[in-house]
Amino acid sequence: MVSLLLVACGGDNDASNEAPGNDLEDEKTELKIGLDPYDYSTVPAYLSQVILEQEGFKVEIEEAEVGILYEALSGQDIDAFIDVWSPNLHKDYIEKYGGSFEIAGTLYSDMPMGIGVPTYLEDINSIEDVANNPELFNHEIYAIEPGSGMALTTEEMVETYGMDDFIIQNSSVAIMLAQVDSMIKNKEAIAFNAWRPHPMFVHFDIKFLEDPLNTWKMDDVQIAVTPSLKEESPTAYKLFSNMELTLEMVETWIMDLDSGKSLRELAEDWVEANPETVDEWLEK
After folding, report:
1. What is the CATH number of domain 113-208?
2. Domain ABC-type glycine betaine transport system substrate-binding, which positions (predicted)?
3. CA angle (63 as vertex; 179, 220 as ends), nearest 5
4. Ranges for all domains in the chain classified under CATH 3.40.190.10
5. Ranges of the chain whose pLDDT falls below 70
């Protein structure tokens, strides 16, 4: 079973199956939300958990790699996956599993992503500039985990730009950014996976490279749900259909993680401070 590979994160507070004033008698109120290992994904995951638990649901967050979560959603081991990059970055997963789920809503559109370099590399402004200067970059491109959408697109980029003499150095996001930090401190040349929302653009003085061969295409980030969720849990479906986030809000959230607050506390604080937005998402 796929679910055996997932790590469940319940809420800090127990939620009853029916909150005062909410008629959930005919709804499925125990839900599982899939969360992949990226800080920005914690925003819709934990906001959904807090909001739905306030409505009377019991919500578990299941942590796993992207591929496992698509398989889990396909097998209905989870009810929702809140980080579908469509139509490009996750195209392989969407082609494989797309017939087994539906898209409920879009969190953000036209997400910026691609290859980043330090701004002090004034003569490096496109991926072609990197391809034409392999020695400057020690024949290396830094990318995140193998099998991730960005890693697969990096492989496609290397092929498209004829960068046969480059090696892709795959690692976790944290390790990749530690390498970025180290090399920027030493004023060295580095090219790496970059995207928003992410506070890397706050922590580092970096820029996106132009992509004249269009290997890095803009995507929407969407919420996928099981085909039965709309009928079984209309309250949750409304939330997933209407939730919209901004890059600035998500990047602020990620930076606030350094304050020592838990993800659950960040979500509770945001929900308390934005009741009108929550009501709009729930169509109240």
Report:
1. 3.40.190.100
2. 30-272
3. 75
4. 2-111+219-281
5. 1-8, 10-23
